[in-house]
Amino acid sequence: MESLKFEIGKVTLHQLNRVKDAMNDIANINDWQIAPYINGYLLSVEGINIASYSIISSITELGINAEQLYEE
Question: What pLDDT digit, counting tens, does each position of 9-33 carry?
């Protein structure tokens, strides 16, 4: 199982709910969580064969800035 993390910029509660809806529509995601982060929110996603591009594009289509975080 893969685990990916994304930083989402500051958003309104309405926009955050739209992100939650978008995560439920993406295939191969088994679990996801959103938590407060430095200057916005941290989106943690777990699943099998997750395409990070599909997550980022789903969020940016909502007009919300998102970028993948890489662990070293």
Answer: 999 999 999 999 999 998 889 999 9
For the chain, which residues make up each domain, given as ranges?
2-65
CA distance 15 to 4: 21
Could you tell me the pTM of the whole model? 0.90
Strand, helix or coil for residue 66 = strand
Closest CA to 3 of 22, 27, 31, 36: 31
Outline where 1-72 has alpha helix (H).
13-25, 52-60
Pick the CATH number of 2-65 from 3.90.1150.10, 3.30.70.100, 3.90.980.10, 3.40.50.360: 3.30.70.100
